[in-house]
């Protein structure tokens, strides 16, 4: 049994005060960054030949 079940969701989210805006803005930029490394071996699979396409434009395997 939970004692505060009725008021559990009435608490607000904790807010933090930003002291270093330069660091905060950089962290937002880094959060959206996604770096993907693709090896040269994948290049053959990445570009398919026209022989793999049927009349309706779908790939055939």
Poorly predicted spans: none
Radius of gyration of CA atoms, rounded to a whole number: 26 Å
What is the molecular shape? elongated
Order of helices and strands: HH
Query: Which percent range describes the beta-strand content?
Result: under 5%
Oligomer: single chain
Overall pLDDT metric = 74
Protein name: Transposase DDE domain-containing protein
In short:
The chain has 61 residues and is mainly α.
What does this structure look like?
The chain is mainly α. The chain has two helices and no strands. The protein has helices at 21-31, 43-46. The longest helix has 11 residues, at 21-31. The radius of gyration is 26 Å and the shape is elongated. This is Transposase DDE domain-containing protein.
Record the SSE blueprint:
Elements: H1 21-31, H2 43-46
Protein name: Transposase DDE domain-containing protein
